[in-house]
Amino acid sequence: PVTIMVLGSIAQEEKDLYRCLDFYQQALNENPTDQNLKENLQWGLVWINYQLNKHKEVQRLSQLFTKNSSNQNFVIKLLYWQAKSLEKINDTKKALELFQNVKNLDSSNYYGILASGELKEKLPSLKKVIHEMPETSTDNLLDWLILTKEFSVAHIQQKIIDGKFKTINERLLDIVTGK
After folding, report:
1. Which of 36, 62, 67, 145 allows an S-S link to 150, with CB 3.0 to 4.6 Å?
2. How far apart are CA 106 and CA 146, in angstroms?
3. What helix, strand, coil percent values describe the chain, rounded to 5?
4. What does the pLDDT look like over 77-109, one tens digit per residue?
5. How far is CA 82 from its chain centroid?
């Protein structure tokens, strides 16, 4: 499935979206066991159909994939784009319901933040977001800071993230010293 997905990605880069869809579907039909690969293929099918304005297919695939996924972040992403697709076909009521659902599932998630914007809601304060965020996870904080144009704080957060990664020289020193 990986090779077929790569062929699909090449077709996507070449803007041959129908060929891309064929490759992604073919790879998915091989029932990949790797969950990340499977979700990437599923997302590819949803996204390409969205780009092709095949909104009924976006709805069908999003519903199918959300029903069969235990990955909340993936489900939230699919629900968000399902709502965007509903907007494209002027089903505003259902779109707003889905945006609300996305926001309720995780208001500090990237798509939860975008959904709040779609709902024309004021975003929570930085203090509230940090307070509600689990101590072990700041994955969404940088996204939230950028989306809310808190660039000075985002810059500090980026430095904290960068500081967690070692340079090649630091890794080599760890190997040599046995750390």
Report:
1. 145
2. 17
3. 75, 0, 25
4. 999 999 999 999 999 999 999 999 999 998 777
5. 13
